[in-house]
Q: What sequence folds into this?
């Protein structure tokens, strides 16, 4: 019994250390990304790996952050709301989306509306189905 207790305590301590290391890595990645952007070493379009790593390291993100990560990962792509919903579904299936919403398409429309209004996302209504892309 004591051996099981020791193993359990050791595993809990290792888990705590791993979580602390992951949090440290997230901070380091965000700092590197800020420095690269600040000094214009590379353009935003060249940074999708940082966005994807940040998303992967987060235990779970909200729909707004997840959608913006999708746009940041493909800054020149024009997305339909259905494509964004499908991406959110994938993220949710992997346990990385923090939402209880059943209708992800309505969530997508709400987030897109807010970002179009504040100017960070551009809506192209010239097609039968509107598309959205990140403002570059």
A:
């Amino acid at each position: 019994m004591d051996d099981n207790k020791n193993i359990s305590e050791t595993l809990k301590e290792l888990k705590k250390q791993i979580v602390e290391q992951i949090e440290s890595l997230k901070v380091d990645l965000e700092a590197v990304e800020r420095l690269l952007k600040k000094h214009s070493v590379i353009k935003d379009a060249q940074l999708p790996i940082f966005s994807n790593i940040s998303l992967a390291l987060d235990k779970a993100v909200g729909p707004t952050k997840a959608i913006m990560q999708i746009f940041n990962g493909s800054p020149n792509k024009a997305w339909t709301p259905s494509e964004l919903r499908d991406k959110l579904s994938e993220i949710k299936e992997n346990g990385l989306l923090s939402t209880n919403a059943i209708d992800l398409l309505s969530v997508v429309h709400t987030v897109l509306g807010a970002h179009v209004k504040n100017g960070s996302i551009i809506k192209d209504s010239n097609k039968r189905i509107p598309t959205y892309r990140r403002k570059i």
Remarks:
- The chain is about 65% helix and 5% strand.
- The radius of gyration is 19 Å.
- The longest strand covers residues 121-124.
- The helical segments are 2-38, 48-57, 63-73, 81-93, 104-118.
